[in-house]
Each structure stands twice: as C-alpha cells, then as structure tokens.
Amino acid sequence: AKGSIQTARKLLGKLWKSKNSALIKIEGTIHLTNYIVHPLILLNLALTLPLVTSQSPILWITPLFTFAAIGPALMYWVAMGNEGKSRWERAVNLSMLVVMGMGLSLNNTRAVVEALVGKQSSFLRTPKFNIRGRKNTLRKSEYTLPIDPNAWIETLIALYALGLFIYVLTNGVWSLVFWLLLYASGYSYIASLNFRQNFAA
C-alpha cells in the first residue's frame, strides 16, 4: 500500500504531462491510487455514528452505493470460476476477501498517510509460516514480527462496529446492517489473527 502511493507521488505528474490520451491518464491514476480506498473505508465507518444519530437522509440512499462494489466482486467471481472452483468455494473466498479488505483498512490507511507525508520506514518482511494445508499449524518463525499496536486499535474498532451493528439492528436502520456486519467481522478477524500469529507456539 505504501509503495503504491509512493509510486503514485512519483509518477502521477509525469503521467498527466505526457502525451497519452485522457482515458489512459484516468486509468493510470485509478491504478496508481487504488489504495486510497482504505482511508475512505475507515472514514465511512467513522461517519456512521453521526449519520445514524442525526437520522441523515443519506442513510436511505446508502444501498445505491452497493452497485459500486459489484464490478470487482464480479471480476473475482468469474476468475475463480475459470479456475474450476465451485459456487460455494467462490462465495466463501469472495466473502473472506471482502471481510479482510475491511479489516486491513486501518493498516493500509496508515501506510497511505505515511506515503503521502513522505515518512520513511524500513521494510518488515511479511511473516512466513510454511502452512500448506489444514493439518499445519502456526509456529514461531525467525520472521515473526512483534504485535503491532494496530492490533489493539483494530480490536477497539471491531467493538465500535459491533456496537453500531447492534444499534442499527435494534433501531431498524436496515441499510447499514450488512455493511456494519462486514466491518465488525473484518476488524475482529484481522485483530485476532495478529494476536494468534504472535502468540503461536
């Protein structure tokens, strides 16, 4: 995420000054800045409470924004079908992809902000646990990283999302029930994964 935005900072000016067509410039911009979606995901969750408590009319058009998510989901659905996966496998994988995307939004937002403000940081290698099947378990590795403080913040956000989910459910704000369930699930999963991988024997 950080590398993508750093690349965008480096190349967007050159892209728009180039002789490429407007369509190519727009496509290139979208491709280079795709991780900007994560701060927007986080902002969306942060604004949910004031929107709900103020009974904003925006809540009733929220379902329309669901159509914006159909394109990527359809792309992955078709791609998995071409790999021979059953409809059930595709549904499970796609659900996990969405949940993990939500849960990673805090981590990726931090990366995006650091890239935008030019903060330098060392690269921490992604932990590898050599898990090749369900019989394998998490175990300590020389690449295991210490618990990221994000894990504690993700836990708090998961509780916030869960509280909002219960609130909208009991108050009949049905347009947000599905999305808040995804937020609560995503942050709970990523936070628990952080703790689980760190404390694995």
Describe this protein's structure.
By secondary structure, the protein is an all-alpha fold. The chain is built from eight helices and no strands. It has helices at residues 2-17, 22-32, 37-53, 70-82, 87-103, 105-117, 150-170, 174-199. The two termini are 30 Å apart.
Q: How many strands in all?
A: 0
Distance between the amino and carboxyl termini: 30 Å
Shape: globular
Uncertain runs:
none
Q: Average pLDDT value?
A: 84
Order of helices and strands: HHHHHHHH
List the helices and strands and how they pair.
Elements: H1 2-17, H2 22-32, H3 37-53, H4 70-82, H5 87-103, H6 105-117, H7 150-170, H8 174-199
Helix pairs in contact: 1-2, 1-6, 3-6, 4-5, 5-8, 7-8
Entry summary:
With 201 residues, the chain is mainly α.
Keyword list:
single chain, about 200 residues, about 65% helix
